[in-house]
Design goal:
12% strand, globular, alpha/beta, Polyphosphate kinase, PPK2-related, transferase, Rossmann fold, 10 helices, kinase
Length: 268
Amino acid sequence: MNLKTEDYRVKVGKTVRLKNWSTDENGGLDKAEGKAWAKALADELAHWQERLYAENRRSLLIVLQARDAGGKDGTVKHVIGTFNPNGVRISNFKVPSEEERAHDFLWRIHAQTPKTGMIAVFNRSHYEDVLVTRVHDMIDDNTARQRLEHIRNFETLLGDSGTRVLKFYLHVSKDEQEERLQARLDDPDKLWKFSAADLKERALWDKYTKVYEEALGTSTAAAPWYVIPADRKWFRNVLISQIILDTLRDMDPQFPETDLDPKKIKIK
């Protein structure tokens, strides 16, 4: 099977209009085929993660951004969950603390970037500071433009320091979000995930669309954005898994060389 993952990558310098990006693709697969493929990809991902961890020279940062109920937690569970947890760190950036607000907006972010050999996952990220803050008029357009430029430079720094960056926007439709929010209300085991604040943010759908489109404009060769059709959860998992796997293969981490000759060692 072959997915044209480049079709989902935001080209450098491209103006993004989310209405032109599908939320409901299946890649020519049915659900059963997609789940079987995801399982095969999981085995490959585990292998390449082990190589990255063993090499201990470079790292990978995965950024997940989405609207409420967009599938960030599901992606962590079904895609990131295939990795050995010893080599993964997951961070979730919510409202800054008083200590964090006393520093520049990237201060708390930099501390969570991956050390060598590791994969870090940002379940929400530094982009919150140019998304929520803009929708709720906490910063003006000039400050937002400055922050977007700081973000580009920050991600360039990470790349120059040996960290590959992948950024995924999980693109769900308004109708699909409605179904998922309703499902949380209807299921006692999912009710804890529902917040009345989700409805307030949903009412600002168009404003979020605008600021997301501008944020996606930070796609670069070193830190690309991918717009992931996310209405079908299984296809979301397949596509993200394939992109991560392609990236790890391109990095081509190597097991460290050793002077040991296993034929000369006897374990008694």
